[in-house]
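[09:14] KT: can someone run the structure on this one? pasting the chain below
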Amino acid sequence: MNTVESLGYLKGLIEGLDLDENNKETKIFKAIIDVIDNIVLDIDDVNEELDDIAEQVEAIDEDLGDIEDFLAGESYVDDLGDIDDDYGEYEVYGLTCPACGADIDVDEETVMEGKMECPACGELLEFEVDDEQE
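[09:31] RB: done, structure tokens below
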């Protein structure tokens, strides 16, 4: 028997006693039952919120796993088993910023754009792509 069922059983027992409504003990029993009823409702609300939070944490964990796979260089595979073109295999180039000496990994798309800011110092880095390399 769960808490809600137990509370219903307890309410039935007290009502079945046919106690005098004006009796002090009857008033105390009813007040205790009301408090327990409120506690049960509060616990139900907390459990619902906890379930919602658990679902959110699970979704965040899945997203984090996808990000970890992406950063580790593995192909991102969506729930249907298809390779997601936005996260698929791509070429990464290493370069050193001439202004600050920071080592930077640059993806092929950024190289094709021809420029980017150095993440370490903000210097504008420009790239030249030969037709043969394209």
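[09:33] KT: thanks! Confidence is low (pLDDT under 50) at residues 75-87.
[09:34] RB: yep, looked fine to me
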